[in-house]
């Protein structure tokens, strides 16, 4: 990657390498020559600050070009980049301590806006480290352009360039070691698989700390001299049409995103939002990073065909961090295809034609293996290659497979050192189930326990530990996902103690809040079952797959539960409360109105985000307190639905706090139709209150033909 950037800076200096589209400010560009210049100067600064060849560097950055420049500066300095998600104030210290302990970094790089927060978290971890805000470093001065004395490193292919942590684990983190050779081969192969060239434009909102964001949109586009259009994930989630607008505005030719992104566009993008969209240049509408849903891809292609999207652009991909990124994909301009097979047979790990329409199941293609990846379908128990029509575990032999997990030899041997029964190997075990048909990979499911939620890997044992730490009386728990029409839904089952709880509702809320704050996901169900009823192996390990099956078939007793679908249904019954609130606000002073609105907001934060809203201070940033970006979207939708107003979405993505959201809602209410008609609504309410049941029935027309 170092050679690629330097070569592009010489051959195409003025070409835009990256363009960043923030949600609420001006677009920022950086050319190949400018990126090379900034990375060079920053690398010299880092070397002068004590950074040595092979040192690990934790990188915490908001979305933007600051990360891109710092990432290549770390590589220029011969160090190992460790890109990470922004830590949350709630529960962030333990995760950082585990990461520091495992990676033993030399320093932390960040931006000035995050430095104070990181200083506190790093200090609390008990591992003091220098924290450098790279956007405050002076990059002018003698000796910074023409680095010498070994200040810039030309790494060998076998040297590490990235530690890609696959989970924000509070136990032993698993950092995939990626070499410079791995990263370069992945970029070469993915670019060929997606038919990239210097005229390609990659549009992406995928986070830079995700393998698809880092090794896909950033590294692969740069390797091929293309231009990458980057945008914050929150900007996409808050208004999905921004993604399509960027593709239209900049002539985007390729994007790869999780299945849920396409489904979100189908659900959230209205026809009036699409006026002026031009998707004729979109050649690769890739889906990867989580299971592909054939119906979603077909519906998306049909919905946006009138705006120039060719159905042949829909393109599947499959990969994993342990293989750097790419394993299979495409072919480009072949469309998203699927096998129609028997669903009943699939449950028995077999592939055959469906006997009836009811039994028919569409098994999406995940593309063809790259020229440097050999895929075997293996029986995970016997370690023998499977018959052609049998479903087995996907094993990989490829040039992009890394050396293993950083400082985790046991897991490295188990995952990266798999061998067939006859000793052939080593292969990379994916833990995914699949089948090869006519040279195309079809992924059927997973045998490994890792949960993929919106493209994010989440380890169930971490979620279970979080629940037990939040409520010590929980002795056993099982976390898993179940398939939904667009993605996989995370569920947590907990055992109640022998004597139960006095306040089960409080336990459910505490668990939801803790998981959201620690792991950045929203559970869709939290189920309480009886003491000692979760299934276990003979050695005492929780059987998550069996617990999932028992919950599905009704054999697992349910003592209590919180269900997001039931919660949404209950919310529909509470819409009248918003009208009553507006009526009450009309008779209050301004300070009373502010308190009433704050109480309302605390209620919906508790209901929709699962946080302990009573502990939330008026000035605490909502996302730092554990509210996810999808949670914020649901909150905004509820407010707009309740009061028939429009909330400025940019207010939610800049460390918005309770007080600021309250002021925004208050201002919108004062000019809303609901506020203008509040006096009339109060009169109607008083009139209805004076009526008995029979009068209400007559007024509503009950009994009329």
Average pLDDT, rounded to a whole number, is 87
Largest sheet features:
5 strands, mixed
- Estimate the global geometry from the Cα principal axes: globular
Integer count of domains: 4
Question: Explain this structure to me?
Answer:
The structure is a single chain. With 705 residues, this protein is α/β, with parallel strands linked by helices. It folds into four domains: 2-328, 3-Layer(aba) Sandwich (Rossmann fold), CATH 3.40.50; 337-446, Luciferase, Domain 3 (Luciferase, domain 3), CATH 2.30.38; 451-564, 2-Layer Sandwich (GMP Synthetase, Chain A, domain 3), CATH 3.30.300; 574-687, ACP-like (Non-ribosomal Peptide Synthetase Peptidyl Carrier Protein, Chain A), CATH 1.10.1200.10. It contains 24 helices and 28 strands. Strands 11-12-13-14-17 form a five-stranded mixed beta sheet, with helices on both faces. It has a four-stranded mixed beta sheet with strand order 2-1-10-9, with helices on both faces. A hairpin with a 2-residue loop joins strand 23 (451-453) and strand 24 (456-458). The longest helix is centred in the C-terminal third of the chain and has 20 residues, at 590-609. The protein starts with a helix and ends in a 6-residue tail after the last helix. Mean pLDDT is 87; it is low at 571-576.
């Amino acid at each position: 990657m170092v050679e690629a950037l330097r070569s592009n800076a010489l051959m195409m200096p003025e070409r835009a390498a990256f363009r960043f589209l923030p949600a609420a400010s001006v677009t920022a560009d950086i050319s190949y020559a400018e990126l090379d210049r900034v990375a060079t100067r920053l690398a010299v600064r880092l070397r002068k600050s004590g950074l040595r060849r092979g040192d690990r560097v934790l990188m915490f950055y908001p979305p933007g070009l600051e990360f891109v420049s710092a990432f290549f500066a770390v590589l220029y300095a011969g160090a190992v980049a460790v890109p990470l998600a922004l830590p949350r104030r709630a529960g962030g210290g333990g995760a950082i301590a585990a990461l520091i302990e495992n990676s033993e970094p030399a320093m932390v790089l960040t931006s000035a806006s995050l430095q104070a927060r990181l200083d506190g978290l790093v200090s609390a971890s008990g591992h003091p480290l220098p924290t450098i805000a790279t956007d405050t470093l002076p990059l002018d001065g003698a000796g910074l352009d023409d680095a010498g004395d070994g200040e810039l490193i030309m790494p060998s292919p076998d040297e590490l360039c990235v530690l890609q942590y696959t989970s924000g684990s509070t136990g032993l983190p698993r950092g995939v070691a990626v070499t410079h050779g791995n990263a370069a081969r992945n970029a070469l192969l993915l670019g060929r698989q997606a038919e990239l060239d210097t005229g390609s434009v990659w549009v992406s909102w995928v986070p830079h700390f995700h393998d698809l964001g880092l090794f896909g949109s950033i590294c692969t586009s740069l390797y091929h001299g293309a231009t990458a259009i980057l945008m914050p994930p929150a900007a996409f989630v808050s208004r999905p049409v921004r993604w399509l607008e960027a593709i239209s505005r900049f002539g985007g030719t390729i994007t790869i995103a999780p299945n849920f992104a396409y489904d979100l566009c189908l659900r959230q993008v209205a026809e009036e939002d699409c006026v002026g969209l031009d998707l004729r240049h979109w050649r690769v509408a890739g889906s990867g990073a989580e299971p592909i849903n054939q119906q979603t891809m077909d519906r998306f292609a049909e919905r946006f065909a009138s705006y120039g999207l060719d159905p042949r652009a829909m393109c599947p991909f499959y990969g994993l961090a342990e293989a750097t990124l790419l394993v299979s994909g495409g072919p480009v301009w072949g469309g998203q295809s699927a096998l129609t097979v028997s669903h009943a047979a699939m449950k028995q790990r077999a592939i055959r034609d469906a006997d009836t329409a009811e039994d028919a199941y569409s098994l999406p293609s995940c593309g063809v293996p790259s020229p440097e990846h050999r895929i075997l379908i293996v029986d995970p128990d016997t370690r023998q290659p499977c018959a052609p029509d049998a479903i087995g575990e996907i094993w990989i032999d490829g040039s992009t497979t890394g050396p293993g997990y950083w400082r985790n030899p046991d897991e490295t041997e188990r995952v990266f050192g798999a061998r067939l029964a006859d000793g052939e190997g080593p292969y990379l075990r994916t833990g995914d189930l699949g089948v090869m048909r006519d040279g195309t990979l079809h992924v059927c499911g997973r045998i490994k326990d890792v949960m993929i939620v919106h493209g994010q890997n989440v380890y169930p044992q971490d979620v279970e530990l979080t629940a037990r730490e939040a409520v010590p009386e929980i002795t056993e728990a099982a976390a898993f996902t179940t398939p939904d029409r667009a993605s996989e839904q995370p569920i947590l089952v907990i055992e109640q103690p022998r004597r139960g709880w006095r306040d089960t509702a409080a336990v459910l809320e505490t668990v939801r809040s803790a998981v959201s704050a620690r792991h950045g996901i929203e559970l869709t169900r939290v189920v309480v079952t009886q003491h000692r009823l979760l299934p276990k192996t003979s050695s005492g390990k929780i059987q998550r797959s069996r617990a999932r099956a028992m919950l599905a078939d009704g054999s697992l007793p349910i003592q209590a539960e919180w269900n997001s679908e039931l919660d949404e249904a209950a919310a529909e019954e509470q819409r009248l409360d918003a009208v009553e609130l507006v009526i009450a606000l009309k008779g209050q002073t301004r300070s009373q109105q502010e308190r009433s609105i704050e109480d309302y907001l605390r209620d919906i934060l508790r209901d929709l985000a699962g946080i302990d809203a009573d502990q939330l201070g008026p000035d605490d940033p909502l996302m730092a307190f554990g509210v996810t970006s999808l949670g914020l979207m649901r909150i905004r939708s509820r407010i707009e639905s309740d009061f028939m107003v429009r909330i400025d979405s940019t207010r939610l993505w800049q460390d918005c706090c309770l007080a600021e959201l309250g002021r925004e809602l208050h201002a919108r209410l004062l000019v809303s139709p609901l506020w203008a008609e509040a006096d009339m609504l109060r009169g109607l309410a008083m009139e209805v209150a004076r009526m008995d049941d029979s009068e209400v029935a007559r007024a509503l027309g009950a009994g009329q033909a």
